[in-house]
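Model it.
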Amino acid sequence: MTPGPSLLKATKVGCRMIEIYHLYKQYSRDVVALRDINLVIDRGEFAFIVGSSGAGKSTLLKLFLQEIKPSRGSIKIFGRDLSRLKSREVPYLRRNIGMVFQDFRLLEDRNVYENVSFSMRVTGVPIREIRKRVPLTLELVGLKDKAFKKPDELSGGEKQRICLARAIINRPAMVIADEPTGNLDPVTAMEILNLLHEINIRGTTVIVATHAQELVDRMKKRVIVLDQGRIISDQERGVYINAR
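Modeled.
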């Protein structure tokens, strides 16, 4: 059996999307980014991971994507122990995780349609399926009429909508957004979070790392607070807690 189908199957069984136990990440003798993290996120949840700069948010996301390895402890995603994941299986793991970045990371020489369809083409999706799915996804994120615009012709909010479309076009089990509203005005930022909420309602697990306190408080979702590498609060329908 190839690694792809086994990972895909894992996203459809059980209710736990992420399981983390006694996780540590130490970069050097004096730099410990995460300390004894224990966390379970269920399939279909919407969770914020919040905390000040240096709290450990970005390190945690990098561990989810297998960009870095933990120093100690265990992480399971889609029911798979990441420490036992073969290197050839990592691309299939990432294919099931849609990623939204603060700095967009768009192909500036491609139009909206081409930016969104790119991730489908590199995974070998047939052209007929691409032509069917891209317009539907652009309509979902409110960019149906912008398909042939280049990124430099769009606002920051529209660029982030491209990123959302690109993140969900391959129908991942989970979407992770790293400071997705950091470069946006408050109104546009709320529109992006509402889109993530709609994506979540459709069944996708959504995890948002942010320091946007007002927006977090308005959303009334699960809020996991990191401070100096530790989880200091984890509340359903929670609010942003300033640790310092």
